[in-house]
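Objective 1b. Sequence-to-structure analysis of AAA+ ATPase domain-containing protein.
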Amino acid sequence: MATPQVQVEEPPGREKIGCRKCGARYHRIDVHIKTAHSMSVDQYHGEYPDASVLSEYAKAALEEKDVESGSRASPGNGEFVFGTARLSVRTAVEDGDEIYIPEHDDGWEPGAQEKEMLEDLALSIEHNGNPLIVGPTGCGKTLLVSQLACAVEQPMRYANLNGEIRSADFLGEKTIDVDPVSGQSTVQWQDGVLPQAMRRGQWLFLDELDSAPPSVMFVLHSVLEPNRRLTLMANEGEVITAHPEFRVVAAANTLGRGDESGLYAGTRILNEAFLDRFDAVIQADYPNEDTEGKILVKRTGIEQDVAMMMVRAGHRIREAAANDEVTCTCSTRRLVAWAHKARLYGDPKRAAAVTIFNKLGRDDRTVVEGIVQRYMGDS
């Protein structure tokens, strides 16, 4: 006996739309037709040219979200819009590259400053540029790039250019492969992260650019040119021309003028010829108090009032660093760690000891402990 269908009345203004293939009703059917019928939106429109994939309620909800976030996606057309920038969603990646597409970070809370940076970043990438993000440690430079890559489903690789990076890791090297059956050995070339990204159309995020050794800087000159070529002298002079989707995004704590704050020992001076290859220099900074408070609550679940006390203490520590009262700072990353430990311990002051105080020298510790006491009180 067939089970009778129950007609559920839809509230006025929230009427769903029906799938032309099976009659199922949703506010958004672009996901439904992909999973239930293995169809793209373009294929669906090919069969049903006048069909919509969004209900009026869903359209209004997306428009409201656009106003809040400053970016929008048009379902089915594979394009994301960030202010004046338009980036296409990557529709096909090399086999195995799915693991390099960053995951969405539910704790990310972009404020007005971050949205402007996101637009600058996307615009540079759209026009085959090389954006350089400069800002203090732990302010969200890497997160900004990874969340943009996530939005457009773009594989992204990381290379930390501190003084310990090996040429073999970055460029590649010849290795000896021994056949387990015959025992014969052959010499093979093994790509480093740069050639891999160029061949496969990945974004390459170069962290701590201002700490890179001169040998790495020299190699990057030709890669940062518009035609994006790399000559592998160690591999018989092979010349690689980059995949059209390949991009370089770099981050640094200083603007290539050396360390002027005393916080970033080991950074190098970058010459003008190298800096000229970056079409956009994006100045990053810590979020404002309101945004940073939301980040702490969202990432750790700590109470709003406690989060704001922590944020104000963090901002005061940064002011002290700017005024040469201390030689340390308090990054957003450090505030998140403090809030997380505070929830675990149930004691913000004890949490501050293991996440902040114990990293400081005696003089800095005295000042910072006083700041935390002033803002946290008896909490």
